[in-house]
Amino acid sequence: MPGNRHELGAYSVYPYLKDPQEYVYVRAREFFYAFKNGRSYRPTDMSFEDVVKAIAHASRTCPAFARPAVLVPVPRSGSSRASFDRDACRYPSLALAQRFARSLKNLQVHELIGRSTPVPRASDTPDRVSVNQHRQSLAIAWQPQLASARLVLIDDIVTKGTQLIASMLALRDAGYQGEIEAFCVSQTVAPGPSENQLLPYLVHRIRWREGHALASRDDLDQWRQGDLRP
Prior knowledge:
The protein is an alpha/beta fold. The chain has 5 helices and 9 strands, in the order E-H-H-E-H-E-E-H-E-E-H-E-E-E. Helix 2 packs across helix 3 and helix 4 crosses helix 5.
């Protein structure tokens, strides 16, 4: 029915500012870049494996992982530049999901979401890709034994949550009816942020009403007290 509302709970670890000034946020930005691009973490030159291990360690108490779940990596846009470093990881979200499954109990990984057609990256276009554009670009693998399983989407960053909502709806369209939540490494911080939006370890509520192009994001609270050290 047109106008139906959809909601998705999500969690993130590191605040991402476009123009950070304080050292702690500069480092969080560099750390996120290392993960997003599948590369080592400069200037300390942590390997990508070390970066993934550090994210998993910082996130081990996230409520998303407190109960049995199937971790579902969200694919890249499909239009990423081809010129990654030769040894860069091309699917960081999958690498992180696999790390979570190795280090925490009752988690398994299934690649249920693929990208059938590429969509523009947010940094390459002034107009964000809509929920329905994302939704139509996704290909879902049907595994009937997981139809009622609890799913946790794993992604690199949450801005408005448009791609996360699209992923949830595509899974619903395919027949997955269990609980769905999301975990992201970073959350973008809008200009003129509130004090709460600058915090690490945030709980988010992603909302979308059918007929609207984009989702919206509410930042609710911290899921733990912590610092930004990887």
